[in-house]
Amino acid sequence: MSPEVKAFFDEATNTISYIVRDPNGSSCAIIDSVLDFDYASGRTDTASADRIIKWVKQEGLSVEWLLETHVHADHLSAAPYIQQALGGKIGIGDRIKVVQETFGKVFNEGTEFERDGSQFDQLFAEGDSFMIGQLRGDVLHTPGHTPACLTYVIGDAAFVGDTLFMPDFGTARCDFPGGSSRMLYDSVQKILALPDATRIFVGHDYKAPGREEYAWETTVGEQKTRNIHVGDGKSRDEFVKMRDERDASLPMPKLIIPSLQVNMRAGHMPKPDDKGDVFLKVPVNKL
Ligand SMILES: [Fe+2]
């Protein structure tokens, strides 16, 4: 089955959010939504999420799932905001517990921050499946960028998050805590083992050098032959060397500090204080 896929590109964070629709009905899933955040002022905005909500209402869709491919470090998730407006269950990989353990420590969260994934409605593991109306989704655990990364294979479409980018851009960094270039290479092989015609939808696009337009859809076949990091039979050792060297030169994403604190809570802000005010922390010399 071939789901209808509607993409929403967020200029501020280069994120692509997707609405994936059962072609035989009105059920849909929303993957990797964005809550706008201006770090300088500490203000959130829902313009990006409202665009998605508007589309869902216009098309008369019913949201069954709000899926996260992983705990993003470059944007805040709008899943709880969209859930309040449209319903649906928030899902992520069950290795989220490892991510919560790591960043619970980094942000000195104390015992009230639970590290069991209970902030999410559904935790998925390798081999799990789920339904969007009559459309079946299968879960691949594809760690490397983070330990909890998932690829959602829905009909003939694979939503790979930050495991693979467009063939001319390559792959995502693997230097966040719990990341591993070796693991990423193995995860990519899992995705490339899907049929060649499988459509691949990536989580970010930054326009590769020489490319004028943003792009987010490719295929397994194209990635196998043309991906500059892993295509054309690149070996694991070649990849690991390239990836690790490159990662050592990358700056931290602008929104990593607010993003992790919010996304490890399924997109919820930390608990308000007794006056109802909400604060995020900045750990000094920890990341
Ligand atoms: Fe990411």
Automatic annotation (TrEMBL):
* Domain of life assignment: Bacteria
GO process annotations (BP): glutathione metabolic process; hydrogen sulfide metabolic process
GO MF terms listed in the record are: hydrolase activity; metal ion binding; sulfur dioxygenase activity
What keywords are annotated for this sequence in UniProt? Hydrolase, Metal-binding
Q: Which Pfam families match?
A: Lactamase_B
Q: Which residues form the Metallo-beta-lactamase domain?
A: 14-204
- PANTHER family reported in the protein's UniProt record: PERSULFIDE DIOXYGENASE ETHE1 (PTHR43084), PERSULFIDE DIOXYGENASE ETHE1, MITOCHONDRIAL (PTHR43084:SF1)
Question: What is this protein called in UniProt?
Answer: MBL fold metallo-hydrolase
Species: Aquicoccus porphyridii
- Upper lineage: Bacteria, Pseudomonadati, Pseudomonadota, Alphaproteobacteria, Rhodobacterales
